[in-house]
Write a structure and sequence with these properties.
76 residues; two-stranded parallel sheet; 2 strands
């Protein structure tokens, strides 16, 4: 995700990273280009994504990635 946000930023796009606080304590925090918004839960993350999106990109991941894809698809 860091590579995608970097390329998007370099290409002139606005990039917003939305990350749950529990995950932000790990090693991924601070690698977002531009603005990073921390939220309490994964559910809050989905809602903030819906409030701020122009597009969604799903990168290869696990079960949680599939859950997010289905949530976004069903709410949009």
């Amino acid at each position: 995700m860091g590579c995608v946000s970097t390329v998007a930023h370099v290409g002139g796009s606005q990039v917003l990273g939305i990350i749950p606080t529990a995950i932000a304590e790990g090693n991924i925090a601070g690698k977002t280009i531009r603005e990073e918004l921390r939220v309490p839960t994964m559910q809050d993350r989905i809602w903030k994504m819906l409030d701020n999106y122009d597009a969604f990109i799903a990168l290869p991941g696990g079960i949680s990635t599939l859950e997010e894809i289905f949530q976004i698809a069903s709410w949009v």
